[in-house]
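Same chain as my last thread, 78 residues:
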Amino acid sequence: MMNVLLFAGLKEKIGNNRVTLPVEETITAGELRNLIYEKFPQVAGDVFQIACNESFVKETHLISTADEVALVPPVSGG
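reply #2:
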């Protein structure tokens, strides 16, 4: 299983600040994005970056179940 932290709009739409996903050992960031869209259709198409161990990663980056994973939507201010 993989624990994923959620922030801002994703946290509000899903209704929790953390989700647990059925991942065996490793998954690419792109596969993780697709799994989030599949499991939580209310966020399908939402834009967010994936952070692994406090660094943003590319879609091809391999993430393991031991990594700290967070989904961070764009932030605006002014």
